[in-house]
Specification:
- With 332 residues, the protein is an alpha/beta fold.
- The protein has 2 domains: 2-171, Thiamin diphosphate (ThDP)-binding fold, Pyr/PP domains (Rossmann fold), CATH 3.40.50.970; 208-331, 3-Layer(aba) Sandwich (Rossmann fold).
- The chain is built from 12 helices and 12 strands.
- Strands 2-1-3-4-6-5-10 form a 7-stranded mixed β-sheet, with helices on both faces. The chain has a 5-stranded mixed β-sheet with strand order 7-9-8-11-12, sandwiched between helices.
- The two termini are 38 Å apart.
- The model is unreliable at 183-190 (pLDDT under 50).
Length: 332
């Protein structure tokens, strides 16, 4: 995943000199997760550089650069650090096209690692996607594999509007197997798929069915796609798993078609349950599929607590917890 994300920025910078990359430790050091390693050496310090420890400054300056024709792709070192920049994202980036009546656009990408998996506790492991899906004018992307990560990031960089690009940390160094309650060893037979060379895009706003099924629809994104696959295998339930990929704009057409076929729906995400993005998904399914539903829409999510450092792997929705929800939904 790291190599795919780096390749997306490399391809974009080579194709368009307006694309610039910066953030905390992004230049010489190559980023805390090494997603930008080598870009400064290749493109110079004017196009890939380190920024002060000021998320509001990073995003605010990117908005100004975008308004004057550049295409900044900035990194917030952890999603947990984005809050000082939230006002810039909501009040400026998301509204620039509208408040200027189309005279200005804001083609920025804000990349940030999201979720847990590194025992980083509540200041390095949050999943704040719902804070951004509530904001009109933003696009919100969460890839689940390297191929999509590269194609979605290139599409995001080329998009004329601001994109929040959330990168699940548990998938960074793959391979990953949703059956496990701990990271999988690098020699695991499970991998995250191949990545094509060169330029390609994955369209924003289009979900994909990862596992066809007829009994129940599972809506997932990021790491939870693999947890959903593992839960379906362990329970033997014929679940259809949809990888949303883009949360905003949402591919409602694919979701509705699936739920109307299966008659049941379970939503899973790593963020806390209350007011999480699963609540929006549940409401949309109920509004659009009510007369096709054979059971209530179920949600499986993180706990409604500050992120527990010592209990990280219990906090995560795992195959066992999701499996119980699938069984209960089938029995309802």
């Amino acid at each position: 995943m790291i190599e795919a994300i780096r390749d997306a920025m490399d391809v974009s910078m080579a194709r368009d000199e307006r694309v610039i990359v910066y953030g905390e430790d992004v230049g010489f050091f190559g980023g805390v997760f090494r997603c930008t390693q080598g870009l400064q050496a290749k493109y110079g310090k004017s196009r890939c550089f380190d920024a002060p420890i000021s998320e509001a400054g990073i995003v605010g300056s990117a908005i100004g650069m975008a308004a004057y024709g550049l295409k900044p792709c900035v990194e917030v070192q952890f999603a947990d650090y984005v809050y000082p920049a939230y006002d810039q994202i909501v009040s400026e980036a998301a509204r620039l096209r509208y408040r200027s009546n189309g005279d200005f656009t804001c083609p920025i990408v804000v990349r940030m690692p999201t979720g847990g998996g590194i025992f980083g506790g509540q200041t390095h492991s949050q999943s704040p996607e719902a804070l951004f899906t509530h904001v009109s004018g933003l696009k919100v992307v969460v890839p689940s594999n390297p191929h999509d990560a590269k194609g979605l990031l290139i599409a995001a960089i080329e998009d004329p509007d601001p994109v929040i690009f959330l990168e699940p940390k548990r998938l960074y160094n793959g391979p990953f197997d949703g059956h496990h309650e701990r990271p999988v060893t690098p020699w695991s037979k499970h991998d995250l798929g191949e990545v094509a060379d060169g330029h390609y895009t994955v369209p924003l706003g289009k979900a994909v069915i990862r596992r066809p099924g007829a009994a129940v629809t599972v809506l997932a994104y990021g790491t939870m796609v693999y947890v959903a696959q593992a839960a379906a295998e362990e329970t033997g339930i014929d679940a259809e798993i949809i990888d949303l990929r883009t949360l905003l704009p949402l591919d409602l057409e694919t979701i509705v078609a699936s739920v109307r076929k299966t008659g049941r729906c379970v939503v899973v995400h790593e963020a806390t349950l209350t007011s999480g993005f699963g609540a929006e998904l549940s409401a949309l399914v109920q509004e659009n599929c009510f007369y096709h539903l054979e059971a209530p829409v179920a949600r499986v999510a993180g706990w409604d607590t500050p992120y527990p450092h010592a209990q990280e792997w219990d906090y995560f929705p795992g195959p066992a917890r999701l499996g119980r929800a699938l069984l209960e939904t089938m029995e309802a």
